[in-house]
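Researcher: Structure prediction, please.
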Amino acid sequence: MKHFDNIQDLALDNYGLFTAGESKEFGIAGSELNRWVQTGRIERLGQGVYRLMKRASTPYDRYAEACALAGKGACLYGESVLEMLGLGMANPRKMTVAVSGRARRSVPAWLSVLPHMPINGTFVEGIPVQQVADAILSCRKSIMTDRLVAATRDARTGGYITKAEYMNIMRELADGEETE
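Model: Predicted structure follows.
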């Protein structure tokens, strides 16, 4: 029971998620994880990623799950960052996550993983995300400029970007309108 208590403490601080690697640090064998899956205590989400079954859900669960499924060092990218923060009326078809190295071969269909991306990230609600200013600018080809302007204003009001970043984004968006 002590093993499960350790995993529960770890997972509850991470949206109910933990990895097989983290469980090994507590001396938990793969066979024990399999038993917990069979008894309904945990759910296997994908390659080495598990979730506690009995826990309170949050609006951020699927974002944390996307990063966990993409692997170590992954962070939300582009429209997915804007969607998580409620900026720019973003509604991506797939959750997009960037990784600095190679991408996992096997991820769910709702997840898109961008490999070999230079990531300038931060954390929002404990979830790794691309810097918000970079996320806004990376959406120039997929979200209308007026929505990005509104997203930039909302990001500044919400404290997600600095005044200098705000001014830079607005300048970049204005330059982009002239060339289109």
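Model: The chain has a mean pLDDT of 90.
Researcher: Thanks, that helps.
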